[in-house]
Each structure stands twice: as structure tokens, then as C-alpha cells.
Specification:
Length: 432
């Protein structure tokens, strides 16, 4: 992670496994459809050939959604054929492995991120041939090369919308855009006032959480929970999909339940957690010895359940208040819900065991702490409840203040969308 060996940019492609780097991004010069790190050369080529520019702000070796967009879009033949004819491509990378860059490029890319106000990855910025920003987008779940290309074309139509509308409509669009900018300034003032009131409240909650976390950590240490090493050599067991049978088995064996809501065939984060945690031999041994694992594999989309199995899964989602996948609920041997954890980029068997231990121990924390520490836990819980009540009051006041702003935005944005849709139709581009 912290290697400082200097590499030439030509070698960069060899070291990166991502398809995005196939053939290597050019360090100097630019040509249509080929990734380059030379932004100035790309702009010059775009102006000369009247081509738009796509800036790809990425974290190539660590960003999950950057890798997904590479897999779903940039590595496809459809994308590459389109880009060769219609785009100049610029790669602006921020790898965690510093051996995949150079100090000079690292500093230059940091300046570019600041120049374009990029806060997260991936961010895709589309420039017109004359260098104006036409729009920007982020990763799309289930993206295709076709959907991404249409998004670029819509941004370019909007950037020169006057070419596709009547003079009156173009003037209206310009007026509405100015009104939306004024609206945004007022909205920022409302949010700034809310943030100023809420910031001290956040600091108070962070202090309460830190105190609570320290007490939970102390209880976990006292509980002497089993570790991954304790399970070494245990043969793996296939997770069940029968929640009722799992609850009976958990009570019989005195083991907690890990209830996993996943979308195995369609959820990228579920696949990533499988790779980082659940397929690891040390995790499989631990789960076989110390857990009853239940998988609830959900279909993509929100269609109504049709079969008995689907209705049973829908009932479980409702029972546990499921908001998305992956979600991993930790239950006591008696079936009491102790809380859940989700996906993170840093997940590992060790972090999963820690998440499970903390939830099980926190549920019965008085068993592991002194009376004095247990009293402190109860005081923290009461303070957190008071905090939630105050937070709800502040948020309700903020909602009242922003309600007229929301209504104004819906009116402005609705008409702008109508005009953009009309312009896209005139340009032969699929509207949103």
C-alpha cells in the first residue's frame, strides 16, 4: 500500500488489472477514443476535431463503483466503438497504491479535482469541444454502454439547447435557469442556517456515541467471545434458506443467527461482501462452528410476490424493516434482533466477527460490566434518546422552512425538464 517506487506512466497499465487501463493511458498527446492523462492535449484535439471530452475522475484500484463502470461500460466493444468516433477520453486517477502513479501526476490530478470540484468517485465530467462543462454524472446501478452514451448525448444537447428550441423557448430556458440559480442560493442559505443550529448537536451525539462504543468494547473484551482462530479446521456448512428451521436449530444449539438479506444474482455490493468475507475459509469455519446462517435471496425490483416462497421472503423483509441489500441482521439464539450491519469497502472476516460480537454483547451488556459501568450505559442511552427528540424537533423546523422552496423547485425544474425533453427529441436523443 505504501510503496514509493517510481514508475513511468507507460508501466502503469501493466500494474493495473482493470480493463480501463487496457493498452495503457497515454501520458502525452491524445487521440479519439483512447484514454490519456494529458488534459491539455485532449482539449486541443477536441477543439481541432469538434469532439466533446469525457473526464473520468476515478480511484482505479479501490473504488467499487469505478470498477463496476469499467466492467459494465468502458470495457465493452459498444463503448469503445462509439468513443473512437465521438469522444476524447481523459483519465484522472487517484489510486491508493502510490506505485501506480508518479508524484507529478498525483499533484496534477489533485489540482484537477479541485478545479472541477470533484468530491467523490467516480465522477464523469463532459466538456463541449470548446471546453465548457456540459454536465456530469456518477455511477449507475445496472449501467449499460447504451444508457451511458445517451446520458452524455443529453448533456451535450442541454449545453447547446438553443440549437434545438425556438427563440422563445430558448429565452424561457435561459430565464428559468437564472431563476433556478437564484433558488439554489436561497436554498443554500436555508441549509446553512440549519447546519449552524445542528452542528453543535452533532458534536454532542458523537461524544455520546464514543462513550457508548468504549463501554461496548469493554464488555466485548470481558465476554471472551470466540475468534476466527478458535474455529480453524471446522468443515464449512451451507447456509439455509429456512428461517423457521434455523430458529429452532439456534435455540437447540444455543447459537446466534446471522440473517443475510442479499441479491446474489444482481447486487454488486453483495458480490463484493461474498468475496471479502463469506467465501473466505476462515469465515466459513467460524460460521459453521459459532453461527446459524440464513440466506434470504431477493429478486431485483419491487414486483409483488407471486409464490409462497416469495411471500414468505416479503414478510421477513417487512418484519425486519429491510431498507436495502446487503443487510446482515444478528439475532440471539432466542431470535431477538440485536441490530444489523451492511457493506463496507474495508469489510473482512475480522470486521464481520467484530460487528456480530458488538451487537450480541450490547444486547445483554449488563452481564459483562460492573454495576457502575452498567449505570453509565443506561445514562448514555437516556441521553441518546433525549438527543433524538431534540434532533427530530430541529429537523421538523427545517422541513417547515424548506417546504416552500421545494414547491418552487418542482415548478422550475418541471418546466426545464419539459424543454430539455423537447430539445432531445429534436436532436434525436432519448430523453430522460
Amino acid at each position: 500500500m505504501k510503496r514509493f517506487r517510481k514508475l513511468t506512466l507507460c508501466a502503469l497499465a501493466v500494474l493495473s488489472g482493470a480493463a480501463l487501463f487496457a493498452g495503457g493511458p497515454a501520458s502525452r498527446g491524445a487521440e479519439p477514443g483512447v484514454w490519456t492523462t494529458d488534459l491539455e492535449a485532449a482539449k486541443a484535439l477536441a477543439a481541432a476535431k469538434n469532439l466533446p471530452v469525457l473526464l473520468n475522475f476515478t480511484g482505479s484500484d479501490w473504488c467499487h463503483w469505478c470498477k463496476e463502470m469499467d466492467r459494465l461500460v468502458f470495457s465493452t466493444d459498444t463503448w469503445q466503438a462509439y468513443a473512437r468516433e465521438h469522444l476524447v477520453l481523459v483519465l484522472i486517477d487517484k489510486p491508493k497504491d502510490r506505485s501506480l502513479t508518479t508524484p507529478e501526476l498525483e499533484a496534477l490530478n489533485a489540482k484537477r479535482r479541485e478545479e472541477y470540484g470533484v468530491k467523490g468517485f467516480p465522477t464523469f465530467v463532459i466538456l463541449t469541444p470548446d471546453g465548457r462543462e456540459a454536465g456530469r454524472s456518477n455511477a449507475e446501478r445496472g449501467a449499460t454502454p447504451e444508457s451511458f452514451i445517451e446520458g452524455i448525448r443529453r448533456h451535450l444537447v442541454t449545453a447547446d439547447i438553443g440549437q434545438y428550441l425556438s427563440a422563445e423557448e430558448a429565452a424561457e430556458y435561459a430565464s428559468l435557469t437564472e431563476a433556478l440559480q437564484a433558488w439554489q442560493k436561497r436554498a443554500e442559505e436555508v441549509y446553512a442556517r440549519h447546519d449552524a443550529r445542528f452542528r453543535p448537536h452533532i458534536a454532542k451525539r458523537e461524544a455520546l456515541d464514543a462513550e457508548g462504543d468504549a463501554l461496548v468494547d469493554k464488555a466485548v473484551a470481558a465476554a471472551n467471545r470466540p475468534t476466527l482462530a478458535d474455529a480453524a479446521g471446522t468443515p464449512p456448512v451451507t447456509p439455509t434458506d429456512d428461517f423457521g428451521a434455523a430458529k429452532a436449530l439456534a435455540r437447540e444449539k444455543g447459537l446466534p443467527i446471522l440473517l443475510r438479506f442479499v441479491g446474489k444474482s444482481w447486487c454488486p455490493w453483495c458480490r463484493q461482501m461474498e468475496e471479502q468475507i463469506f467465501r473466505k475459509p476462515e469465515w466459513q469455519a467460524y460460521a459453521a462452528k459459532y453461527l446459524i446462517t440464513v440466506d434470504v435471496d431477493l429478486p431485483k425490483g419491487d414486483r409483488a410476490p407471486e409464490t409462497e416462497e416469495e411471500r414468505a421472503k416479503a414478510a421477513l423483509c417487512k418484519e425486519f424493516g429491510l431498507r436495502g441489500v446487503p443487510s446482515y441482521f444478528v439475532l440471539t439464539p432466542e431470535g431477538v434482533n440485536c441490530g444489523m450491519f451492511g457493506a463496507t469497502t474495508e469489510a473482512s472476516p475480522e470486521t464481520a466477527v467484530r460487528d456480530i460480537d458488538r451487537r450480541l454483547v450490547a444486547y445483554d451488556i449488563g452481564r459483562y460490566l460492573s454495576e457502575e459501568d452498567t449505570a453509565r450505559v443506561n445514562a448514555v442511552l437516556r441521553a441518546q434518546e433525549a438527543w433524538r427528540e431534540e434532533a427530530n424537533r430541529l429537523w421538523a423546523e427545517h422541513e417547515i422552512a424548506r417546504k416552500p422552496l421545494d414547491a418552487e423547485f418542482q415548478t422550475l425544474n418541471g418546466r426545464l425538464r419539459e424543454l430539455r425533453r423537447k430539445a432531445c427529441e429534436a436532436a434525436g436523443v432519448k430523453a430522460e
